[in-house]
Specification:
The complex is a heterotrimer of chains A (205), B (147) and C (316). By secondary structure, chain A is an alpha+beta fold. Helix content of chain A is 20%, strand content 22%. In chain B, strands 2-1-3-4-5 form a five-stranded parallel beta sheet, with helices on both faces. In chain B, helix 4 links the parallel strand 4 and strand 5. Classes of the chains: A alpha+beta (205), B alpha/beta (147), C mainly alpha (316).
Chain lengths: 205, 147, 316
């Protein structure tokens, strides 16, 4: 009991170890995962974040307009585990978990982070004309397409099917036996995942 | 004068009652951390009450499990007015990762009105202090609304 | 005129108002210094006052299976008996009501608040209260014996003409002649015993088996809310004042400067110091006793200390 007594009396005359938080602002340590910030302009609507979210906190709504789809992505922080998986999977780094920990709300809307962006309709060109133009410099390999969709270089491709497996939209079909690489242009969202994963770097964007 | 004194005291002496409705213990530990010497919520008047009858603020953590649902609702009913219900962490607000489990019947707002939600999994003690400070504000407002 | 002075005594000076204010001050000091001993900032000294007024503004819930009248009357009975007790304790030589056998009266009156808590708890119809009530009874039995022995020892030390006294007035007068009893080596064990009896009587931390917050949800108070709870909490604060004032009268009395108001202030400062030493320090350094440990501790160690003093006073 004597050591406790000494501790208590010394505590009485020493500075308290309490932090002054509500009166003194405090930063979260580096690497703390707090409030989500969504950079809507970088999103390519691959939907990967929504698929990997453990808490089911991410939802998407889209409205059809003349110019294209108006897509709103909602992050409900009241359902978030702050596991960072969505940010890890986002190929465009459109999701960021900041150090802001002040997530207190009286109503549900204060806990929702949203971002809206316009997904333009793909500009379809007449395939023969495009092919005809691309015919001449074919010796140096294919050129990147103007609408940002991926192009495969058959000279380098080994048909490993990795790109098709990784494609979040399921737009790629690769047949190893027939050595074909086909792209469904309507499904493709031009996320660049295939480009990133290709071991031979044969997909050009 | 007397009424003003009581109104002012209401925001200065909020007693907490903590209900664990199937929480993973993360939020519970953080709530206890708020009461430790480092964060010392007692300097703002917060005190952990032993029974719901003494409480002003009910802090619920955890998704509402089927077993705990009746008890949570009954315990919150036992708290005398004015009272504030605070959800700690994501679970009582939305069931979080336990959504869809056979044993989880949350979220809490199906059964009682939630006044303050503190998000985070688990929330930082500072965030909990923020939430409780907001709760005392509501406590004062509710007293004004009552009379 | 006589009645008016009595009314002032009862309602204002050592009575209701003063006991309330000073009790809340003692409780605030206790909480603040306890926090500082635990290296915290701690609540403001006015915190118990805020708690009291907040509880007055809360809804009062009466459980369905409670005995309504007893449940609501118990806290007020306890408070009234405490206010009456306050009148019998000399503060700096000022005693509102005195008599031949103050200490016996105080002993009886101090049992009533504890009994009020027991009645209130039993009336609430909660099993937690039931457990708390039985534990409270054990704690009453624990501290009564050493308290009686301490009072006897002090009474014997203040004996005049060979008769052991029960009058606090005489104890104060004798101390004015011989100096405070705390400086009398024969009475030091009794003073230590009294310092240990104070927290048990008040129901403060290491000896709060009856109202163990973390174990049995504050025992008899489990079903109380609103104003009755506020009165119980206030009774707790007033008990702190009465017990420390009793200690001051028994062991630190007779410090006189000739001016009554200065004597009173000195006595109140002593009360505060006794609170810090006996309640805050024990709270900070000790964990709660179990029921049987409490009983054993008080009937062996504490009673033993008081008995040693009594024997020394009687024969040395």
């Amino acid at each position: 009991m004597i050591p406790f007594l000494r501790e208590a009396v010394s505590g009485l005359f020493s500075k308290p170890s309490t932090e002054g938080y509500p009166f003194v602002p405090k930063e979260a340590p580096a690497g703390y995962r707090g409030r989500i910030v969504f950079h809507a302009d970088q999103c390519i609507s691959c939907g990967m974040c929504e698929r990997v979210c453990a808490g089911g906190a991410i939802s998407t709504t889209s409205v059809e307009t003349e110019e294209g789809q108006l897509i709103t992505r909602k992050f409900f922080l009241g359902s978030c585990t702050f596991c960072n998986t969505c940010a890890d999977f986002c190929v465009k780094h459109a999701i960021e978990l900041t150090q802001d920990y002040h997530m207190v709300a009286r109503c549900e809307d204060d806990l929702v982070v949203t971002g809206t962006y316009l997904k333009k309709k793909p500009v379809k060109k007449a395939p023969p004309a495009a092919c005809g133009q691309a015919e001449e410099p074919a010796a140096e390999g294919p050129k990147p397409r103007e609408d940002g969709l991926p192009v495969q270089d058959p000279a380098k491709c080994v048909y490993c099917t990795l790109c098709a497996k990784k494609c979040p939209a399921g737009a790629l079909t690769v047949d190893r036996a027939a050595k074909t690489w086909t792209l469904d242009e309507d499904k493709c969202i031009a996320c660049g995942t295939c480009h990133d994963v290709c071991p031979k770097k044969c997909i050009i964007m | 004068m007397f009424k003003k004194l009581i109104d002012n005291s209401a925001a200065k002496s909020p007693w907490l009652f903590h209900i664990n409705a199937g929480s993973c213990n993360g939020c519970d530990i953080e709530l206890v951390a708020v009461l430790t010497p480092r964060y010392d919520a007692e300097r703002l008047g917060f005190k952990l009450a032993g029974t719901p009858r003494h409480a002003d603020i009910v802090v619920v953590s955890g998704p509402i499990t089927a077993q705990s649902k009746d008890r949570v609702v009954r315990t919150i009913e036992q708290v005398p007015d004015p009272k504030v219900v605070v959800t700690l962490g994501s679970c009582p607000r939305s069931c979080n990762v336990f959504k869809g489990s056979y044993s989880v019947v949350g979220p809490l707002d199906k059964y009682v009105d939630i006044d303050v939600s503190i998000a985070g999994c688990a929330p930082k003690p500072e965030a909990i202090i923020d939430g409780l400070a907001l709760a005392t504000q509501i406590l004062k407002e509710k007293r004004g609304a009552k009379e | 005129m006589e009645i008016l002075i009595k009314a002032v005594y009862i309602l204002i000076f050592p009575g209701l108002l003063f006991a309330t204010v000073f009790g809340l001050w003692l409780a605030g000091i206790d909480r603040k210094l306890l926090a500082r001993m635990q290296k915290r900032v701690g609540p403001p000294v006015l915190q118990p006052t805020y708690d009291f007024f907040k509880l007055l503004g809360k809804e009062t819930i009466i459980p369905a299976n409670a005995a309504k009248v007893t449940f609501l009357a118990a806290p007020y009975v306890g408070l009234i008996s405490l206010v009456v007790t306050a009148l019998f304790i000399p503060i700096g030589g000022l005693q509102a009501f005195g008599g031949m056998a103050d200490t016996v009266v105080i002993l009886y009156l101090m049992a009533i608040p504890s009994l009020a808590i027991i009645f209130g708890g039993s009336a609430s119809g909660s099993p937690f209260a039931g457990v708390g009530v039985s534990r409270s009874m054990v704690s009453i039995m624990s501290y009564e014996l050493p308290l009686i022995l301490v009072l006897l020892a002090v009474g014997r030390a203040a004996a005049y003409g060979g008769y052991t006294t029960f009058s606090l007035e005489q104890i104060t007068v004798i101390q004015q002649l011989t100096g405070p009893f705390l400086l009398d080596w024969r009475l030091i064990p009794a003073a230590v015993a009294m310092l240990l009896v104070i927290p048990c009587e008040v129901g403060a931390h290491p000896f709060d088996v009856g109202e163990a917050e973390t174990e049995i949800c504050e025992g008899p108070l489990v079903e109380y809310s609103g104003a009755p709870l506020a009165v119980f909490k206030l009774s707790h604060c007033i008990k702190m004042f009465i017990m420390t004032a009793l200690f001051t009268a028994l062991f630190l009395g007779g410090v006189t400067t000739g001016m009554l108001w200065l004597d009173v202030i000195i006595a109140l400062v002593f009360c505060t110091i006794v609170t810090v030493v006996s309640m805050t320090l024990t709270h900070a350094v000790m964990a709660r006793f179990r029921v049987e440990q409490l009983f054993k501790f008080f009937w062996t160690v504490v009673s033993g200390l008081a008995l040693v003093s009594l024997i020394l006073v009687w024969y040395v």
